[in-house]
Amino acid sequence: MTEFFKLPDGLNKRELKQCFLDFLEVYAKSTSTQNIEYALSELLELADRQWHTYELLDEDIKRQIEHYIIYHLEFQDEEVVDTVLCIVPRLSLGKVFQYLQQKRKYIKNECIVADIVDAEKEYGAHVENPFYGLENGKK
Fold first, then answer.
1. Are the CB atoms for 58 and 29 separated by under 8 Å?
2. DSSP string, 80-116
3. What letter does residue 58 receive in the DSSP assignment?
4. Alpha carbons within 13 A on the beta-carbon side of 50
5. Which of 82, 60, 68 is nearest to 27 (CA)?
6. Span 48-65, mean pLDDT?
7. What is the mean pLDDT of the chain?
8. Which of 18, 46, 99, 125 has the most other CB atoms within 10 Å of its CB?
9. Which residues are CB-neighbours of 72 under 8 A, at least 6 positions away?
10. What pLDDT does 124 receive?
């Protein structure tokens, strides 16, 4: 189990890259329905720190993270989907966002569907650029 929430807020790109690799090493094969919320909360911690570097995530790591999320995504768990919707714009995970949009019509939980629709309005057109709001004077 990791404790990325204990990391300092400011990490450099090299340190963060190693943290993402550590995340994938720990959780890629050990994530289950029992620990998915914790694993994603740890990924959100890393995503926040990555976003604050004002640099895009390494493409190879991005692909691995997208694969991880798509493989483990539980569409009926509000907490899981909410956390993923927070991670997506911070790491510019366009493939994950497209996957959520494609599966939306199969989701029975109306709160989750509403969250996806809200995300489409908030960052859908600019999901590939996590700094769009900063660059264009929006909060």
1. no
2. HHHHHHHHHHHHT-HHHHHHHHHHGGG---HHHHHHH
3. P
4. 27
5. 68
6. 93
7. 91
8. 46
9. 31, 36, 39
10. 75
Residues 110, 6: Cα–Cα separation, whole Å? 34
- In 3D, which of 88, 51, 56 has the Cα closest to residue 70? 88
CB 101 within 8 Å of CB 57? no
CA angle 87, 37, 11 (to 5 degrees): 45
Instruction: Enter the tokens of residue 71.
Output: 């493989």
**Burial tier of 41 (Cβ tally within 10 Å: 0-12, 13-18, 19+):** middle
**pLDDT value, residue 135:** 66
Of 105, 88, 86, 87, the closest CA to residue 97 belongs to 88
